[in-house]
Amino acid sequence: MSAESGTKTLEVCFSPALIGQHDVSEAVVVVIDVLRATSSMCVAFHHGVNSIVPVASVEESLAYREKGFLVGAERNGEMLDGFDLGNSPFSFMDALVKGRDIALSTTNGTQAIAAAKGAKHIVAGSFLNLDVLAEWLMAQEANVILLCAGWKNSFNLEDTLFAGALASVIQPAFELNRMRDAVLAAIHLYNLARHDLYGFLEQSSHRSRLAKLQIEKDIAYCLTPNQAPVIPVMVDGALVRMAV
Amino acid sequence: MSAESGTKTLEVCFSPALIGQHDVSEAVVVVIDVLRATSSMCVAFHHGVNSIVPVASVEESLAYREKGFLVGAERNGEMLDGFDLGNSPFSFMDALVKGRDIALSTTNGTQAIAAAKGAKHIVAGSFLNLDVLAEWLMAQEANVILLCAGWKNSFNLEDTLFAGALASVIQPAFELNRMRDAVLAAIHLYNLARHDLYGFLEQSSHRSRLAKLQIEKDIAYCLTPNQAPVIPVMVDGALVRMAV
């Protein structure tokens, strides 16, 4: 059943490498990279950034510097030398970002946005914009696909937990189809974790990686709902703040 | 860390389409298609089948009939006309299968076996051979990858639950690496479901499909541990019963 017939479907995709199983053309795709790309994007727009161009390579982002962009890059969780910004949400709270355009290259988030190409809308989701995003999605006459960026195309827990958090709120407005198992799994895992997201992720792979980088503060912030109630949306190759 | 250095890793892969993220060459790959291909394979060998050739197409399996094979095929959960066997574990309990060679084409199981090509060993896992398989895996000096066949390359719950059941038993003998999140998720979901697997799957996609086919009895049987304590293993393109 399609969105046209009055019913709309909700699907969860655990990896950009599996996006081919989904029909993005009739759907809003929510790209999810909780630690930390899509969280930082929400913070950036909440602090007045004008646009963010997601780029695939570090070289490409440097080319944007010459056009007056701030450039942000991170690989394997670490900020790269010679860049203006890393991938921490706190680096986007600086007054220097207000009104600026940013070219951002990240390990997984940019790749997931690229995988969603052809979607009706591509928006960025994180715990930081949970409620505003849920409300907007339920009001759309479109199917919704929650696309977890994962870690280098592998399943990851933190993106799955956010997919579950969002799905558990919006599910009543959608039908579940033959792809329902991923939706159910995400909701089950979120319900297990919801009272202590931080503790639940203690054993997870990415959190272990990030802990080594001493960014526990970033993680705690990225798991806190509704700190940056904005919706980043792709328009003509750049993310901008949706007028809602 | 590799199996050679004395540590061995455990990974879970939620779809044949994601197998490229894993290094199968140093690993035992456990192919999991609980409803019903790998369950039926266990039953077949427990009832004296000589070999099972997994084939990709219905046409290919028919070619085996001329060589004296019994032929089994199923598409979308239903037995195909003109075949000797379907995909129900009960069809493999018949005395007629004893000592015979079978060519079997299934929707997802055969595809998953193909995806595991190049592995050190490829074995079939299901609740029906849980304990014997766990014991054998822990005794091997090799990495282990639990490969969920899923449904047409999408995540499914029943294969994930078995991956979690097996992982929760064997995990102490293995290291978890950067792919650990899928292992943790499978174990969490299994722990949620373990006291009522049948009820937990009630909302799942594949069970709904199969319920329409009136094979609730198959499902209940496929979720019952240790009914067929054998290990099907690929040798020269065919599954045979491992001597353990």
If you had to describe this structure to a student in words, what would you say it looks like?
- Two copies of one chain form a homodimer.
- The first copy, chain A, has 244 residues and is α/β, with parallel strands linked by helices.
- Chain A has a single domain, classed as putative 2-phosphosulfolactate phosphatase (Alpha-Beta Complex), CATH 3.90.1560.10.
- In chain A, 34% of the residues lie in helices and 19% in strands.
- In chain A, a hairpin with a 2-residue loop joins β9 and β10.
- The first copy, chain A, is globular and about 45 Å long.
- The mean pLDDT of chain A is 90.
Describe the structure concisely for a colleague.
Chain A is α/β, with parallel strands linked by helices. Helix content of chain A is 34%, strand content 19%. In chain A, a hairpin with a 2-residue loop joins β4 and β5.
